[in-house]
From TrEMBL:
It is found in: Cytoplasm. It catalyses: L-cysteine + H2O = hydrogen sulfide + pyruvate + NH4(+) + H(+). Keywords: Cytoplasm, Lyase, Pyridoxal phosphate. This is L-cysteine desulfhydrase Cds1. It comes from Williamsia limnetica. Its cofactor is pyridoxal 5'-phosphate.
Amino acid sequence: MTTRGGPVGTAGAPRTLDVDHRFDRGWVDNAVRLIDADATRSADTHLLRYPLPEWSRWDTDEGSTGISLYLKDESTHITGSLKHRLARSLFLYALCNGWILKGTTVIEASSGSTAVSEAYFAQLIGVPFIAVMPRTTSPAKVALIERRGGRCHFVDRSDEVYSEAQRLADETGGHFIDQFTMAERATDWRGNNNIAESIFTQLAQEEFPVPTWVVVGAGTGGTSATIGRFIRYRRHDTWLCVVDPENSAFFPAYRDGDPDAGSDVGSRIEGIGRPRVEPSFISQVIDRMMSVPDDASIATARRASETLGRRVGGSTGTNLWGALRLIAEMRAQRRAGSVVTLLCDGGDRYSGTYYNDEWLAGKGLDLGRAEGMLDEFFTTGEWSE
């Protein structure tokens, strides 16, 4: 029986309904403070000018102009990769939503770098952390997670990580932090020192402060969503190109307009490439996609390592391959401008894989074709598939 005044008891007297879920927020407040303090101690990552040959410059009636290439060096984060930004955002998002409390076990489905960064933040605020990952994840990444106090839980197939992470969360009463769903919403794409704002701020004094292209890989989809939204929000005359390794679901989904596209073969380029189209992948903010063969990703990572004097990861090779192809197009069109891509992580984590010739042979990877294309590009500025 109800009245306009609300529920009443059997005697007709108003009955007050009151559920009070207040609790001492001291632990959560301190956890947020610890993460903010960590960010305050950290400087922004560098924007490196990547050297291009003389053909990248030419004379016009107005003077000399050309093409510039930049790498946003995310390997300088304390946890060594682009995923440090994502992990910080995911933890703050979960804390402020009340999903992580004192003692909550945090579980993630990750092929490595995100889990490395999340293990760092879990240790920082004092909660247990479990990373669910394929058995093929590089031993170096496993060691980095365990060094931060995290535990690695392995599955045989890459597409099993999601259900197993949720099962562990249910079993432990923990929180599945779920980078693949939360990446695009946990980061404030309008600003607040996200990676897009950082790139454009650092370019402000360069010859071409508004880049013609920004090139990123498709992993969770969070980085491309953040940058694509920021470009539109700030009304920049910039295009966003997303590169995807072979055996990943993102490229065929974009090409065919099929959000249900999938792949039964796992990506060999750790950190990018997925067997399904992740919820954080916002295809509408992407202007162009390229599928990059694995031999090209690895050959370009090795070439970049020689140029920079330090090793970079395979996903950086994927990014750079796409950027070089765009630069060849710009040169052919005599279009001056800048291209920016990401140096996602260092290559020392892959000493046993991408920088190991025996591993490459075991995977049936021959870098000769890709190396020849890179030689031609850096010699002539031309691109031939």
